[in-house]
Amino acid sequence: MFPAGFKMTPPDSSAMDDDVFDFTDSEDADAPFPPTYMVVRFAAATQPRAIAWLVDKIRGPRSHGGAELLVRRQHTEPGDGVILHVSASCRKLLELAEEMELKKRDQAGLMREFIFAHLRDFVGEKGDREDLLTTAERQLIVRHELDNIRALSEDPSIPGYPNFRMYEGQSIVQVMIHRALVMSMYPLHDKENLKRLSSKWYYSKHQPIEDIRLYFGEAVALYFKFLDFYTVKLLFPLTLLGVLQMALSTLETLPFFCVCNVIAVTVFLEVWRRRSNEAAFQWGTIGMTSLDEPRPNFHGTMMVDTVTGRLLPQFPRRTTYIRMYCVTLPIVVVCLFLAFLVMLLSFYAEERLTQMSKDPESGVTYVTVMIPSVVYSILVSVVNLYYRKLATYLTEWENHRTQSQFERHRVIKLVAFEFVNTFMALFYIAFIYQDMDMLRSQLATMLIILQVVNNVQEAVLPLLMRYLSKGAGVGEHEAAAGGAGGADGEVSSAGGLRYRGGSATLSHELYPGVPEVLQGIPELDADDPRQQQALTEGSMDEYEGTYDDYLEVFIQFGYVFLFSAVYPQAALWALFNNVIESRVDAFKLCRLYQRPLARRVKDTGAWQRAFEALGAMSIITNCGLLCVSPPLRGRFPELSQTQWVLRWMVVEHLLMGVRYVLHQAIPDKPEWVRVALAKLNYQSKLALRKERALKRRMSSRRSARPVPVPKAPAH
Amino acid sequence: MFPAGFKMTPPDSSAMDDDVFDFTDSEDADAPFPPTYMVVRFAAATQPRAIAWLVDKIRGPRSHGGAELLVRRQHTEPGDGVILHVSASCRKLLELAEEMELKKRDQAGLMREFIFAHLRDFVGEKGDREDLLTTAERQLIVRHELDNIRALSEDPSIPGYPNFRMYEGQSIVQVMIHRALVMSMYPLHDKENLKRLSSKWYYSKHQPIEDIRLYFGEAVALYFKFLDFYTVKLLFPLTLLGVLQMALSTLETLPFFCVCNVIAVTVFLEVWRRRSNEAAFQWGTIGMTSLDEPRPNFHGTMMVDTVTGRLLPQFPRRTTYIRMYCVTLPIVVVCLFLAFLVMLLSFYAEERLTQMSKDPESGVTYVTVMIPSVVYSILVSVVNLYYRKLATYLTEWENHRTQSQFERHRVIKLVAFEFVNTFMALFYIAFIYQDMDMLRSQLATMLIILQVVNNVQEAVLPLLMRYLSKGAGVGEHEAAAGGAGGADGEVSSAGGLRYRGGSATLSHELYPGVPEVLQGIPELDADDPRQQQALTEGSMDEYEGTYDDYLEVFIQFGYVFLFSAVYPQAALWALFNNVIESRVDAFKLCRLYQRPLARRVKDTGAWQRAFEALGAMSIITNCGLLCVSPPLRGRFPELSQTQWVLRWMVVEHLLMGVRYVLHQAIPDKPEWVRVALAKLNYQSKLALRKERALKRRMSSRRSARPVPVPKAPAH
């Protein structure tokens, strides 16, 4: 049998002080059901046997591969899919928090791994243990436990689906999601906290990063921190500089402005790296490595992990590398090349049509000339969708161990493609056509379209769509569940929606439409507001992570800095947009999407590199643009064309050199973070030493035999 | 009073098992004096009071700021400076090894910090504790202890020298060296081991890296590892490729050859980084950080170290940065600029003279034309000497905490200057004159001169000099002490020169010429061969670290790769040279220099970056050379000059891109090192956790009071 030991007992249960808190909370039908942390929604066609089997696993003891969580079934209409509410007792959550090595701030203000036996260090003498974990953390813990229900050797396939085979150690929930038996799995919003957060968020000048982190997790908080930092520390000063440059409006200041820009970008990215490391330290995520616990979809043979000694799926890193470099890389390169080719084709077609339109007999009108551009735009967005699926599929297949690695490799693939689609056309205009006016107008159009379209798409459209598709009826429902929590939700003074104290109804009578095997699962009260909330939020769109948000900033960043030599005003537009953008994003997250699961990150991952690559590229493009700019060239008629080009080449290389020196000279982490990490490291080392000394002494007690003393020293 | 506590008791003396070895070795006049680990040679004029005071410190107990080492005075002629032999008991050495966190391989083959109480884990049940530490390590330990004798508040100045003031916590030995009271301080060679090492070293195909490390320490071993790796893995294949290219001798293959070169360099440097990290892991130096124990010359106010909690000199890092960027950087830049200017001047003078020489009436002959070059060469070598002093002084003044940081910043300053002096002239010829033949002949000359001169200078000249200056008498002495260890040294079978068993003579009778205060120091036997050895090796030159050796490779690397487009044969010469070079260096270290003190390093420091910078530059220069090469240009007459330049620019940027991608894609550390480090980290973390759990439990025993159980859960 497959031992569930790899996630069984907390690492040092031996050191557990059972006298710290004297409470019992085994599942009791009369006890109130705690808040729902995850909603699991099955497809209507899913066989009741499979559902009942999963519920047994969720509620079952760990010794039998269960998760020891609490489950309630929601009252649903016949024909609808089954909806389960999953929760956990407070004690269980705290135990799991220890197991997941969650970091919490202790009473001394130090961020350290939570240990259940030290509960008092974290909540203080009078503190409430219920307050220690945020709802985001509880949801994360419950989701982690659900994902970690793994197939035993006695479960070759899902009951009722003999074809849906599983290998030992596979995540059952992930298989059921993959097989579309589970339609969705999502946490619920915490109305009270959300209300407090959003009121703070929409109207304050700076982003309330810490509140965002507590509610949405580190990944979302880091995105907003980045957006804020980028807007305030980079765009704002550069906008002022740009305005100054426009006011002076002399040609000679333009190169100076460009140099300022590219150096500012370099410094900004270096300083951001420091900031992000600082945040990661404060959030306790700085120690995340690629050898951490694998993500749920990581597959491999169950083996003893070299680092932790626990039983975990293992997959040779070499195979991942082979897949990456021998399969994925060629496919991606071909895709990029095709995208480039399509772009060239559209340019060629447009050019031909423009020439033909000069001949009135050809029948080519002004409108016809625009066809290639329009077709190209549509094609790009369609192909983009497919490419995104391809990239996700390939990255999944590469089988990276951690979520961060997975995200990084997925982002690299996607960004390269987006880069070709977005910027190659502009490069073509700038350096092949060398038409600066066309470039400028194109830039202005794309920048404004990007920003308007995005904001509309992100906020206005979803609101409108929902209003149109669901009509007033559902809208009312939503308003009741969403806005008026105070009216029917019994808001507690401590915050958060207090759940109904009523006991669960064990449905011994046969409800019509509920299959017999499911009637063993206790049901929620008929008037529990969570049932409506689960339905409403289940119909909302899922927030797919920060990818699209970063991408938007990335493209904007490219528009502003790659071509600042021809369009210095871009920074102003970007600044203006970002002030709105951050609010739109906040609104989107708070109101339009299902609550996303908190995700822990230690940095912006591939985005840091992507932005750095753009920074380096901006040196090349700006020097190139200034070099091909006719007015500037006109000032130096005495230089031959080659001399002129060489001069700019020297400037470019010097700037690259400056960039390299800055990169080397600015340390990645602030001094205090380095010292704090070194301190922790030193203390751990000492502790390990002591532990080994202790162990040795114990073993030497057993076989105490003097070692022969050497007769004569030798050197 | 200044507490000597910062280096007093070993970190966990509480866990020490005193029953492991039952031996006593307090200093006993009748006990044999162990091998000399450090020789301290005073100036003849040094006041005996000062010497006696230092000896008291060296022998004194730690509780009074002493080092608890053993000292013997060498019998010297009247008028000569006093020479002291410093040693330590085996037990003391092992205790200090623990304190210095020296890493040793235990019986399980694992590299870990030596702990005295675990001695048996390291030497095994039957092992000899004398064999555990190599002589290099013993010397390092003794030197470390000597350097760590620090001035107490009761020592305001050196006795007999009221003007030589010291601040509390300053290293006394360093002050005495600085004030020229101590002329030199050096370890002695270990004839037997040296003989074994050198016979292996001179004749084996590969460098015996592990033996070198054990005898000369990590810094020297890493240099030879680098030299070996560079010669075998980079130069050898490229030579083959170069020969192939010469055989084909078609113009079209040259660009291909260049591209191969620059990509090979990039890959080589990345792989070297991996190798060096691997070695650092195996040698136990990978964990060295800039927060490690400060180097002896680091000064600052004595304060509690944030990381270790020990009392150590502290100096604000910010001040170092300010000094670096506000003072040193401008000075260095000015120096570089001046060097550049001097080079231009010499070129200008040469050009003028060449023009004048065409006019027979000017009296300028062929010889006169060469004057500027000669003057320039002499000027460069003279200025170099002064610049080196300046760089050392500035780096010392910047006050870097660790030896590695100090070395890195010193190397950066020196390499920049060497770069300007060595390569700028070639750049000038290549890109301003664009005279490829001149470049080629210049390269060939400089490469061969460099190699011949260096080898002569390093090996032949010192041998000759010594022979000439000292005559046959000293030569015999040396031969006796050096080669014929077996004849008079009582070679033990265990290896190494066994010291004479005779007891030290406490000179109660008054020797003529020996001041009274020094007569309390026991003297070595009159026939102890170490006395002659100390004199002979004291007169040898000091090995000043690996800087000059790396520099030689660096310059060669530059000649070979920066200009491989015009002179592909360079690799062959370099290969040929390095085969000899490694032997010459080996000979130099074994026979010509004082034994250097082992130095621990975790990587090649600034050299890695310097070579990487050359690698990047080689892309630029090779593309540039191919671009200005007339024969290649002749093949593409249809391209305009600007188009031609732009084409090469694109190639250059593509290669830079490839370099960047390779740099990102090749991980710094091999997978197994990463896993091993992660494992150690994980174990330390667990140990710290347990320790904290234990502490908490103990404190909670005292105040066991139940925390109020919350009445109602809230979310």
UniProtKB/TrEMBL annotation, chains A, B:
Region (Disordered): 694-715
UniProt KW keywords: Membrane, Transmembrane, Transmembrane helix
Biased composition (Basic residues): 694-704
Pfam family, one: Anoctamin
Location within or outside the cell: Membrane
Keyword Cell membrane belongs to the record: no
Domain of life (superkingdom): Eukaryota
Gene Ontology MF, one: chloride channel activity
Anoctamin transmembrane domain: residues covered: 212-678
One GO CC term on file: plasma membrane
InterPro entries the record matches: Anoctamin, Anoctamin_TM
Membrane topology term: Multi-pass membrane protein
Keyword Transmembrane helix assigned: yes
TM region positions: 254-272, 324-349, 369-387, 411-433
Similarity comment: Belongs to the anoctamin family.
Name this polypeptide is given: Anoctamin
